[in-house]
Amino acid sequence: MSAVLDHHGGHAHDDHAHDHHPTGWRRWVFATNHKDIGTMYLLFSFTMLMIGGVLALGIRAELFQPGLQYVNPQLFNQLTTMHGLIMVFGAIMPAFVGFANWMIPLQIGAADMAFARMNNLSFWLMIPAALMLVASFFMPGGAPAAGWTLYAPLTLQMGPSMDAGIFAMHILGASSIMGSINIIVTILNMRAPGMTLMKMPLFCWTWLITAYLLIAVMPVLAGAITMTLTDRHFGTSFFNPAGGGDPVMYQHIFWFFGHPEVYIMILPAFGIVSAIIPAFSRKKLFGYASMVYATASIAILSFIVWAHHMYTTGMPVTGQLFFMYATMLIAVPTGVKIFNWLATMWKGEMTFEVPMLWAVGFLFVFSMGGFTGLILAMAPIDIQLQDTYYVVAHFHYVLVAGSLFALFAGVYYWGPKWTGVMFSETRGKIHFWGSLIFFNITFFPMHFLGLAGMPRRYADYPMQFADFNAIASVGAFGFGLMQVYFFFFIVLPMMQGKGEKAPQRPWNDPDGRGAEGLEWEVPSPAPWHTFETPPKLDATATKVVG
Predict the structure, then answer these.
(1) Which one of the listed residues 34, 60, 83, 417 is annotated catalytic?
(2) Is 18 an active-site residue?
(3) Per the omega criterion (within 30 degrees of 0), is the bond before 153 cis?
(4) Catalytic residue selected from 456, 457, 513, 543
């Protein structure tokens, strides 16, 4: 890295704006620039969001009325399984990595990510994995139909697509681990002089902690699916009771990965929201240090709560109590975050541009998802609600209204810095209100379906559940259309550079208050090379001096 810095040391930006600046297909295939790789991650994740969304609409079309309309129960389970896998590993996680690639070097004043070529590889590994996941529908016997959790014994009975799925998960896991190493090394070693860890933007903190989580748990998932693979082909019996194995052991291993995973998908969202709320409240973030400690606490606690997914597996009551109390404990640091965001807005001079709308929408719906999570943490209640639509409602409130809304907030907030043009405020508001309303029409009725006892992953249901299912299905198609609208009316115009030119600090009021941080010190759009000479920071580490 030092060689690169020495080489470019004293030059002004214009001298070498076109140095090493590949064009055409080479720019993307051999990309080592963190901004290009971030863009590719974001476009990839949006593509996967659309594919996963089409699968979800297949599920909702089938459930629009009782009886079997479009798909048989086997294909229905393939849809639910692949919808989950594609959304979690193909849409949400890569989207946050895209944000990390774009924003972390800009926020800490680094010239690029630490390992630029590894960065390229970690992106391109995802393409074959995604192709394998999608192609599994066309393999003999169709796609895996064991649920996104890939529970044994179902996985031991699936066709060849299960092996393709396992291979795809391995590759995606390798990509995640490489991306995480890159993020950790970049944040710990490449901050501008004067930017101590406790002056870093919260988005960098949340990603640093998330990256450690990923390195800790992706190998656990790899272990679980490798044991599944050897059970399928090499005569082992880890999860096969006939050979002395135990399918519940799979659940323990999977959820030891799976619970930290849900925090991997929400912590970077907290970082994005922590950037946006202070900007539009014209105030500093309330309780910065407590936000850092809360994020770390959530990460640590996430390792001791996994079996709350397994209350119905015949766990001893002592175990149920431990996991119940440990899960309730996670509500404390999460509550600290919600309190700090509200305290940041308190008496602030708030304006509600589109990024702020998404951030406030996030607070509202994520809190609802958090409360239903607390309800499901109670073992006696969860035993009634296990595998009902109440659980589906809960995790979609957290994942769609949590992760996805924060991602949209981030695109609207940093998009002008990425593309150099402003989006249409009116179109952004249509996207926000349409998404918020259709989201609630889709998932709110599922709480009632679950309380009434409708099980998930079934292609058919009794007549008593018909009305709420019809409402949910209409909402789902509306929500899907809003995301297509987002692509054609927000994303495409910005990528094509259509729209009013974005100022360097698009969100600041006439007095200069608003968005703070090093990313607003570079012009819009952010140039190909930034911070080749490390910036000299002021005392707050948010502005460049000299």
Answers:
(1) 83
(2) no
(3) yes
(4) 456
> For residue 394, what pLDDT band results from cuts at 50, 70 and 90?
very high
> Do 1-265+516-546 and 275-511 fold alike per CATH?
yes
Q: Domain 1-265+516-546 is of which CATH architecture?
A: Up-down Bundle (1.20)
83 a catalytic residue = yes
Please name the residue that has the structure tokens 């924003």: 103
Question: Which of 176-180, 457-461, 535-539 has the lowest average pLDDT?
Answer: 535-539
pLDDT beyond 90 at 15: no
For this structure, is 337 an active site residue? yes
| Nearest C-alpha neighbor of 279 from the set 168, 409, 92, 175 | 409
pTM, entire model: 0.95
Beta bridge partners of 455: 388
Distance between CA atoms of residues 414 and 336, nearest Å: 26
- Tell which phi-psi region holds residue 456, choosing left (phi > 0), alpha (psi between -120 and 50) or beta: beta
Burial (CB < 10 A; 0-12, 13-18, 19+), residue 289, is: exposed
Query: Cα–Cα–Cα angle for 277, 181, 530, nearest 5°?
Result: 60
Given the residues 36, 163, 231, 261, select the one marked as catalytic.
Answer: 261
Residue type, 283: K
Task: Give CA separation, 98 vs 105, 229, 356, 508, in Å.
Answer: 12, 31, 21, 25
Per the omega criterion (within 30 degrees of 0), is the bond before 525 cis? Answer: yes
Look at the block and give the residue holding tokens 């006892």.
453
Q: Which of 45, 175, 435, 530 is catalytic?
A: 175
- Domain assignments of the chain as residue spans, ordered by start: 1-265+516-546, 275-511
Annotated active-site residue in 81, 228, 274, 297: 274
Measure the CA–CA gap between 131 and 123, rounded to whole angstroms: 14
What is the Cα gyration radius of the chain?
23
Which CATH code is given to the segment(s) 275-511? Answer: 1.20.210.10
C-alpha to C-alpha distance for 458 and 79, rounded to whole angstroms? 11
Under 8 Å between Cβ of 507 and 280: yes
Per DSSP, what are the bridge partners of residue 537?
A: 544
Catalytic residue flag (residue 176):
yes
Structure tokens at 216: 């800790």
Yes or no: say if 86 and 514 are a contact pair by the CB < 8 Å rule.
Answer: no
Residue 469: CB atoms within 10 A of its CB come to 21
Query: Is 456 assigned a catalytic role?
Result: yes
Q: Residues 24-48: what's their mean pLDDT?
A: 97
The amino acid at residue 167 is F
